[in-house]
Design brief:
With about 525 residues, the protein is mainly beta. About 0% of the residues lie in helices and about 50% in strands. A hairpin with a 4-residue loop joins strand 21 and strand 22.
Length: about 525
C-alpha cells in the first residue's frame, strides 16, 4: 500500500493510503498519538462498496451493471433501494421500513414532481428558458415567478390563484387586508444587475439598497426610508466602518492575512481585539472584561474556552467529530448521542436526566421526551410547516396543546391553546426548579411531625404554568446551594391557583416533618411565607 503524508499550517499530520491501483483506501488523522482512520473498500470496477468511519460504523453500497447505486445499507441496518428510468435518472427510493420517495422529470430532464417519504408532493413548471414559473407545494398552494429578459426575477406571486400573470403584475398595487391571494413581491435592479429594491405586497419598499462604483452595498434603507445600515470599505474591499440605524458606528481593522484584528464600538468606546494561531483559528479575545482564551485539539476542534474569570467550558467529541459532551465550569457534564443518520438522539444532563429526540420518515423533528417523562409532539402540514405541538405527562395525561392556523402563504394567524383543565388540584409532583435542580416540592394536604417525605422526581414540569402547579421565580439575588443544608434564607415568589393546604418541602431540609420549619401550609392565593433556617 502506498502512503502519503500532508501537514497543515499547525503541523497536524494526515496520512493517506492507496491501493495498487492508486485508489484512496485509508485516511488517518491523529488526536495526540491516537489514530482516527476511515476506510474505503472497492469492488473490481472501482466502486466504493463500504465506508468505515473512525467510530467503526459501516455503510455498505451495491451497484447494478451500469455502476449505479441500487442499495445503501446504513450503520443502523436501514436498506435504501434506488430505482432509475431509462435515461439513468433516479426516480424513486424505498427502504426496508416501507418509506418511499419519488421524482419525475419533464422531457428536458428538469424535476417536475418530488414526493417525500411522508407522501407529500411538490410540483414545478418551467418556461422555455428553464426558469421556474410555478411551484405548487404539498398543500396545493401555488407560487408564481416572473423574470425579465436578462433572467432576473422581477416578481413573486404567493398563493397564486391562476389569474393571468401579466395582468396581475401590470395592475396597480392595491391593499386588501382581508385576502391572502395573489400577494405580489416586486424586485428592481440597476444596470449592473444589483438588486435595488424589494417592494412587498402592500406596495411598501421593504428594503432599498445603494451601491458604489464597485457594486458594493453602501447603504440599506427600510420601508420608512430610514437608513438601517451604511458600510465603508477599504481598498481591499474589507468593511472598515458600519453604521446601524441608530447611528452607532462599528470600526474594523485587519491583520496582514485579512483576519479581523480588532473591532471598535464607538458608542461604548469599547475595543475588542483578536489573536489567531498559524492555522487561522481564533485563540484570544480581549475586551474590557479581560482575556478569553480558545483552545483546540489536534483535529482543529474547539475543546476549551476560558473566560476572564478563569472559568472554563470544555467540549468533547466522538471519533466522528460530533460533540459528545459539554463540561461547565462547576464540573457539571451534559452528554450527547446521535443516531445512524447523525441526528441528535439523546441529551443526558449532570443529574442523569435523559432527554430523547424522535424524527419521522421525512427527517422532521417529531418528539422530545424530557427527563421527567413529559413528551412534546410536533405536527406538520404537507408543506413541512409546524401546525401543532402537544405536551403529555409520563402517564399520558394531556398537559397542554397548541394549534397553529396558517394562511396560504404560511404566516401564523391564530394560536389555539389548551391547558390542563381548571379547578384540578394535583396531589403530588408540583415542583420548582432552579438551575436544573429540584429545590422545592408541594404536596396537597396537611402533614404532622414525623411524616416521611421522598422526592417524586429530579426534574420539573418545566415551563408549565397550569392550574395546580407552582408558578415561581426566584427573588433577585437568591440562590439555592444544593450541598449547603445550612443556607440561612432562600426566598421565592410563587402562586398556587387553587386554595388548599400545601406542604412545601425544601431540598437540604430534614426528610420528615420533625419540626414546623420543614413545611408550611398555604390556605390560598397571595400567602407570603419565608422559609428560613433549614438544617
Amino acid at each position: 500500500m502506498q502512503r502519503t503524508v500532508s501537514a497543515d499550517t499547525t503541523s497536524q499530520r494526515t496520512e493517506y493510503g492507496y491501493d495498487s491501483q492508486g485508489r484512496l483506501i485509508t485516511t488517518t488523522r491523529y488526536l495526540g498519538l491516537r489514530p482516527l482512520e476511515t476506510v474505503s473498500v472497492y469492488n473490481a470496477l472501482g466502486n466504493v462498496t463500504q465506508r468505515i468511519d473512525a467510530a467503526g460504523q459501516v455503510v455498505t453500497t451495491t451497484y447494478d451493471s451500469l455502476n449505479r447505486v441500487v442499495n445503501t445499507i446504513s450503520a443502523e441496518g436501514v436498506v435504501v433501494t434506488t430505482t432509475y428510468d431509462a435515461l439513468g435518472r433516479s426516480i424513486g427510493t424505498v427502504d426496508n421500513l416501507g418509506h418511499t420517495t419519488s421524482t419525475a422529470y419533464d422531457g428536458l430532464g428538469r424535476v417536475i414532481t418530488s414526493t417525500n417519504a411522508a407522501g407529500d408532493m411538490t410540483t414545478q413548471t418551467y418556461n422555455i428558458a428553464g426558469e421556474r414559473l410555478v411551484q405548487t407545494d404539498a398543500e396545493g398552494v401555488q407560487t408564481a415567478y416572473v423574470y425579465d429578459d436578462l433572467g432576473r426575477q422581477t416578481h413573486m406571486i404567493q398563493n397564486w390563484d391562476g389569474t393571468d400573470v401579466a395582468q396581475l403584475v401590470a395592475a396597480p398595487v392595491t391593499i386588501d387586508p382581508t385576502t391572502d391571494v395573489n400577494l405580489i413581491t416586486r424586485y428592481t435592479y440597476d444596470l449592473q444587475g444589483n438588486r435595488l429594491a424589494v417592494i412587498n405586497a402592500r406596495g411598501y419598499t421593504a428594503t432599498q439598497t445603494t451601491y458604489d462604483s464597485l457594486n458594493r452595498a453602501v447603504m440599506v434603507q427600510n420601508a420608512l426610508l430610514t437608513t438601517t445600515q451604511t458600510t465603508v470599505y477599504n481598498i481591499l474591499g474589507q468593511t472598515v466602518v458600519m453604521t446601524d440605524a441608530n447611528g452607532a458606528e462599528t470600526h474594523y481593522s485587519y491583520d496582514g492575512l485579512n483576519r479581523v484584528e480588532s473591532i471598535f464600538y464607538a458608542t461604548d468606546n469599547e475595543t475588542v481585539s483578536y489573536g489567531y494561531n498559524v492555522g487561522g483559528q481564533k485563540t484570544v479575545m480581549t475586551d474590557s472584561l479581560g482575556t478569553t482564551v480558545y483552545d483546540y485539539d489536534d483535529l482543529n476542534r474547539l475543546i476549551k474556552v476560558t473566560d476572564p474569570l478563569s472559568e472554563t467550558v470544555e467540549y468533547l467529541y466522538n471519533d466522528n467529530g460530533q460533540r459528545e459532551a459539554l463540561v461547565y465550569p462547576d464540573g457539571k457534564v451534559v452528554s450527547y448521542t446521535y443516531d445512524g443518520d447523525n441526528r441528535l438522539a439523546t441529551i443526558t444532563d449532570w443529574s442523569l436526566g435523559l432527554f430523547t429526540f424522535g424524527y419521522d420518515s421525512a427527517g422532521r423533528h417529531i418528539t422530545t421526551t424530557l427527563a421527567n417523562g413529559v413528551v412534546s409532539l410536533n405536527g406538520y402540514d404537507k408543506a413541512n410547516r409546524l401546525t401543532s405541538r402537544t405536551y403529555t405527562s409520563a402517564e399520558g395525561t394531556l398537559l397542554g396543546e397548541y394549534l397553529y392556523e396558517l394562511d396560504q402563504v404560511g404566516n401564523k394567524i391564530t394560536v389555539t391553546e389548551t391547558i390542563l383543565a381548571p379547578n384540578v388540584v394535583r396531589e403530588i409532583e408540583q415542583f420548582l426548579e432552579e438551575n436544573g435542580q429540584l429545590v422545592l416540592e408541594a404536596e396537597a394536604g396537611e402533614v404532622t411531625a414525623g411524616t416521611a417525605h421522598s422526592w417524586e422526581s429530579e426534574t420539573t414540569q418545566t415551563g408549565y404554568v397550569g392550574d395546580g402547579y407552582l408558578r415561581a421565580e426566584p427573588d433577585t439575588g437568591t440562590r439555592f446551594a444544593e450541598n449547603d443544608p445550612a443556607a440561612s434564607t432562600v426566598s421565592y415568589r410563587f402562586q398556587i391557583d387553587n386554595p388548599n393546604d400545601y406542604a412545601l418541602w425544601l431540598r437540604g431540609s430534614a426528610t420528615d416533618a420533625s419540626s414546623d420549619s420543614v413545611y408550611v401550609s398555604l390556605e390560598g392565593q397571595g400567602t407570603s411565607t419565608a422559609l428560613t433556617g433549614f438544617g
